[in-house]
Write a sequence for this structure.
């Protein structure tokens, strides 16, 4: 009976830890910082129609190795590492436009919209995305790899704390 009781306590501690981790996902914290970002990566991603693939063709969209959730984790990790929370106060929606070639590599990356004095932030955001080294499984039309384009929506909110 004691073993079952201890197992229940053990399991409840880990389930609580998972809830805390889920609550913190999307936030960047810094020990000595007055600012932190919250980034909401919207799912599902927007996939542009491949013009070479007809409506009656079998189409399979591009997939990141490990799925969309794995890409979100990688993207979050690199944004938190390479976008400086002390310099940028970012509030609003940005879009990542990725071209995925037939080999599963990101060939073109664009961040929109362009705003006044946002060049540094957009440059850092592009750099963070380029640091993701895993490849994609390319889109396929009738089981033939084709180039494709993806749009990912990012909502940024910057919050400040008085120290």
């Amino acid at each position: 009976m004691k073993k079952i009781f201890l197992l229940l306590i053990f399991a409840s501690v880990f389930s609580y830890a998972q809830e805390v981790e889920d609550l913190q996902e999307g936030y960047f914290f810094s020990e000595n910082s007055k600012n932190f970002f919250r980034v909401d990566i919207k799912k599902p991603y927007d996939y542009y129609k491949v013009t070479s693939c007809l409506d009656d063709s079998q189409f399979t969209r591009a997939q990141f190795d490990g799925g969309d959730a794995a890409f979100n984790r990688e993207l979050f990790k690199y944004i938190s590492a390479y976008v400086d929370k002390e310099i940028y106060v970012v509030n609003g929606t940005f879009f990542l436009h990725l071209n995925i070639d037939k080999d599963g590599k990101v060939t073109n990356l664009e961040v929109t919209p362009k705003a006044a004095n946002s060049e540094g932030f957009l440059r850092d955001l592009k750099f963070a995305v380029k640091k993701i080294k895993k490849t994609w499984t390319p889109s396929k039309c009738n089981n033939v790899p084709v180039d494709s384009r993806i749009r990912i929506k990012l909502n940024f909110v910057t919050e400040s704390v008085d120290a």
Observations:
- The mean pLDDT is 79.
- Strands lie at 35-41, 46-47, 59-60, 63-64, 92-100, 106-112, 136-137, 139-141, 144-146, 148-160.
